[in-house]
Design a protein that fits this description.
The complex is a heterodimer of chains A (235) and B (294).
Chain A lengths: L1 E10 L2 E11 L4 E5 L6 H9 L6 E6 L2 E2 L5 H6 L2 E4 L11 H6 L10 H14 L1 H5 L10 H14 L4 E5 L7 H16 L3 E5 L3 H7 L2 E6 L2 E7 L3 H10 L3
Parallel strand pairs in A: 3-8, 3-9, 6-7, 7-8
Antiparallel strand pairs in A: 1-2, 1-4, 4-5, 9-10
Helix pairs in contact in A: 6-7
Chain B lengths: L1 H36 L6 H17 L4 H28 L4 H24 L13 E4 L2 E4 H23 L1 H11 L1 H6 L4 H23 L9 H16 L4 H21 L2 H18 L12
Antiparallel strand pairs in B: 1-2
Helix pairs in contact in B: 1-5, 1-8, 1-9, 1-10, 2-3, 2-4, 2-8, 2-9, 3-4, 3-8, 5-6, 9-10, 9-11, 10-11
The chains are: A alpha/beta (235), B mainly alpha (294).
Amino acid sequence: MLQIRDIHVHYGRSHILQGLSLSAAPGEVIGIFGRNGVGKTTLLKTIAGWLQPTSGTITIDGTAIHHLSSHRIARLGIGFVPEDRRIFPHLTVQENLTLGFLQVPGRSRAQSRMALDEVYAKFPRLKERRSQPGMTLSGGEQQMLAMARVMIGDARLLLIDEPSEGLAPIIVAELYAIIRTMKENGRTVLLVEQNITNALAVSDRFVAIERGQIVHAGTAASESDKQQLMEAIAI
Amino acid sequence: MLDYLQFVLTPQIVTGLALGVAVILVALGLTIIFGLLDVINMSHGEFYALGAFIALALGQVGLPFWALLFAVPILMLPIGYLVERGLIQRVFHSKDRHITTLLLTFGFALVLEDALRLVFGPNPYKPETPIRGAVEVLGTYLPLYRLFMVAIGGLVIVGTALIVYRTRLGAMVRAAAFDRNMAASLGVPVERVYAGAFAFGVALAGLAGVLLAPIYSVFPTMGRDFILLAFTVIIVGGMGSIGGAVIAGLFLTQVQAISSLYISPVWADPIVFGIMVIMLVVRPQGLRGGLGHA
């Protein structure tokens, strides 16, 4: 489904991604690990179109996306939940959610309404707070809103960056239950996470990044792969 | 005392109100463009002049004033859209965006002004007032056309606020103004939203040109003076704020009207610009938060 081939990304003079290649199959959850500053977030931002690779290709089901603008990438079914959630604080919860409709062009009003109702059924707190500005939500609720926003956009590939950062364990458990449901529904997920134990529990495969390259890859079910992962990222 | 109120003060306040509404129309476009694109459109005054000249030309070929109120803003929309896509977008991602777009729009203003001079000549035109006469309200005679301006301008201002704050299109605009990348990742076509908002702002300036043409003369440099007042309004109101532009527009034009009466018309402009200077020192962010931030 997702094919990344030998991408290089620069921030000014800094060479962040240095020939990274990765592929993901439909319904696969891939954990992406590594220390701060190794290029994990850069990888997700590049797939989402926020950054342009200086070389290399990214394709989704055979369609090259590395030269497309972010909104076109989003409309191909790629949802991004960034590290700092990036909800719109002055828009109401419902306005934040309904922006996600734009990811599915051609959906009828009735279908949109149904998608919104489904999301509200999964996130009753958001329904209660639908008329409130996003900034009045707690950190956990904001993370739920960011997740619900990509769900409403019916994304096939989800790019999720540090979802549990700064959240209470009970909220983290809820979040991972949602990620598990997404996986069961056949979504592909690239999950960047510092909390390796939580991430491995939902992942099929994982990769470890060091200095902009994948230095280790393995399956989440393999104990020896996991052991090597810990050694690779020196935790 | 009652006579003074009826024959001097109230008509002066209505005159200020009519000017205020027209200034707000121009300032709204300016503030939406700044709030969304982070671009100071130095050619906005010339778009206002262009609107007045298009109205003049269409009026001369027989289009009635009522039709001009719709035709001119509609004609200005594609002009604004093309200017944004063809000029501003080309330099939008450059490192020194603020300076580049400022100089670009300033250059475009000079071109537009000279083009108007070439086509229409340097002399002022004075279109006929479409609505003559006055209406008596509680013993005060108020000019009908100025009341009409207040009504039309008020409707457009309320309509704009409703679009921005009550529709999904408005939510897209506010989202793009707050966080361009995240809005795009939700499928918002940010570039088209930018061009559309720029075109809408230009259309509002054109409408102000149509409304003010019968009051002031129409001439190629007419945008220069007026745009200074519009810039003052958005600085005092808060760059990028719709509510701030409305409050500051009404306040500053009333200050102008009243100070002309009680001090001297010569002092009206220095007082208004003095308020802007004080505002920049005391509260540089202006009265209200910008588009997407409020």
